[in-house]
Design brief:
The chain has 258 residues and is α/β, with parallel strands linked by helices. Strands 6-7-8-3-9-10 form a 6-stranded mixed beta sheet, with helices on both faces. A 4-stranded antiparallel beta sheet has the order 2-1-4-5, with helices on one face. The chain is globular and about 50 Å long.
């Protein structure tokens, strides 16, 4: 899925951003198609998180604009949910209350949906526990469940598995793949610095390079869905695909004409 065309769910049009006069993003153009999971990969400091915060309406770009379903993003929207690396859970709320927070905040309490997500995320028996009583992996499951509870049209994820141990990270990657296969109504952008994670999860990969942050390459991932980590690593074109992304991120890679 290319994400190109008039049916783009997310359109990033000439976006730039500066902090204190220092540009961190410059002339970023992107389109994300319906039910596409776009992975943005890049080194630390290339503006990945800044871009995601702009997509989520938490920052206004100093140049350009973002449209979601044709509407200009000017602030946070009920259509969009975000998942952060550091969980962002309310320490004084139980697992059940954290997952249901977004629903309750919108006046749509739905205990059945919350219970389904507790089951989906493998959190059975943990509904009345508090974040301090959970492992990092369980906390991130709660954060992902909270985002999914509001049935967003757009799911934005900022290195959500980056602080987890390798085994837990693989388990949650597989869980996200299963969720993605089950829910054709959601479009996503996933930020990572991990090339293998980007290939595993993404329909397309955008390589972002720094000083200021800009798109150097867009690379399609032709691996069919449904996917598993094992199947992806065994895909015949995997080494060449990984090399293409790695080459795009290398500081000495040739710059496109500007």
């Amino acid at each position: 899925m290319s994400g190109k065309g008039l049916d783009a769910r997310i359109l990033v049009d000439g976006v730039g951003h500066a902090f204190g006069g220092r540009p961190v993003l410059e002339n970023v153009d992107l389109q994300v198609g319906p039910h596409e999971l776009l992975c943005v990969v890049g080194r630390s400091g290339c503006g990945k998180t800044t871009l995601l915060r702009i997509l989520g309406g938490l920052l206004r770009p100093t140049q350009g604009r973002v449209l979601i379903h044709g509407d200009v993003v000017s602030g946070p929207s009920a259509r969009v949910a975000m998942v952060f690396q550091h969980f962002g859970l309310f320490p004084w709320k139980s697992v059940r209350a954290n997952i249901g927070y977004g629903l309750a905040n919108r006046g749509h309490r739905d205990p059945e949906r919350v219970e389904r997500l507790i089951d989906t995320m493998g959190l059975q028996g943990a509904g009345e526990l508090y974040p301090r009583q959970l492992s990092g992996g369980m906390q991130q499951r709660v954060g992902l469940a909270r985002a999914l509870a509001v049935e967003p049209e757009v799911l934005l994820m900022d290195e959500p598995f980056g602080s987890l141990d390798a085994l837990t990270r693989e388990q949650l990657q597989d869980e996200l793949l299963r969720i993605w296969d089950r829910d054709p109504g959601v479009t996503g952008v996933f930020i990572t610095h991990d090339i293998d994670e980007a290939i595993l999860l993404g329909d397309r990969i955008v390589a972002l390079v720094p000083d200021p942050g800009r798109v150097r390459a867009e690379i399609a991932v032709p691996i069919p869905r449904p996917r598993t980590g094992l199947a992806v690593r065994a895909y015949p074109g995997y080494p060449a695909l990984r090399e293409a992304v790695w080459h795009a991120l290398r500081p000495e890679a040739a710059e496109p004409a500007r």
